[in-house]
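Most newcomers find our protein records easier to grasp once they have seen one. A learned vocabulary of local backbone shapes supplies the integers on the structure line. An example says more than a description, so a record of this kind follows:
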Amino acid sequence: MLFSVVICSYNRREHVVAAVQSVLGQTLAADRYEVIVVDNCSTDGTADAIEALVDPHVRYLYEERLGLATARNTGWRAARGTYVAFLDDDARAEATWLETAQGLIEANPDNLCCVGGPIHPFYTSARPDWWLDSYEIRTRGDVQRHLRQGEAFSGSNMIWLRDALATYGGFESTAGMKGTELGMGEETALFRRVWEGEESPVFLYSPELRVYHWVPAEKMTMRYILKRATANGQFEARFALSEDRRPRARLRLVGATLRTLAVEIPTVLLKRRKYRRTQNWYFEHCFVPIQDVSKLLRLLGITIRVTQREGTS
């Protein structure tokens, strides 16, 4: 078997069924892949909904330890495929997704740990008049290429060599989403470990490897960006501290972050006058300084727990 598609879900019954159906509709021969649904403590009837699909290519697993990273690790460890494809429970795979991935793998057989592609939005509610699709598009451009040092794929469109996941320990279980707690970084930490361990290009991007991700109304708000940036800043600080736990290192990080903010904040404020709508300025420029303020607070010992409405992420 070539692919195991892992879909982890927490209280998203209707969405996860649609995600699974998008995989079952692939153009790739059905005997080349399986679907593994990892139910991460759902209480909304997810188990019954998956069972009702009655498809031999779908396996259901229950993971009682809350956390997206933990659920993903459970999924890939149970995988029978040579490659493990991760798809979010509120995403939809293009019909040629796995067939495209197979072509990329066959054409690039050496040192390939992971392939990935763009994520485009889809909506089930009205969009604000200032909203741009680009705010939710995750892309590395319009040309196939290997990622550059430090780059990574977004979590809902990455297809990993299973052996690479085993070699590098999978996803960081202390980071990422945990139920209604908004967390970041579980795949970022994995990509960073691989970059540290590999000398040659190991991540291949293709604009043809497309999936579509749901954008609920709550994500199209300034409040959500505040939450997401705050959560990411908390992760970045914790990751940096884990690299060097000495007090001197913490002080260096505090100083570096303060210097960064001293440049970022005035620069971002000056850009406000170029925008007619505050929302567009905010979405396009404020994520990074908010993230760095949150990072600074965590470096100073202030932990911020960010929550979200159930079924939003």
The two ends are 31 Å apart (CA to CA). The chain is about 40% helix and 15% strand. The chain has a mean pLDDT of 95. Residues 247-271 form the longest helix (25 residues).
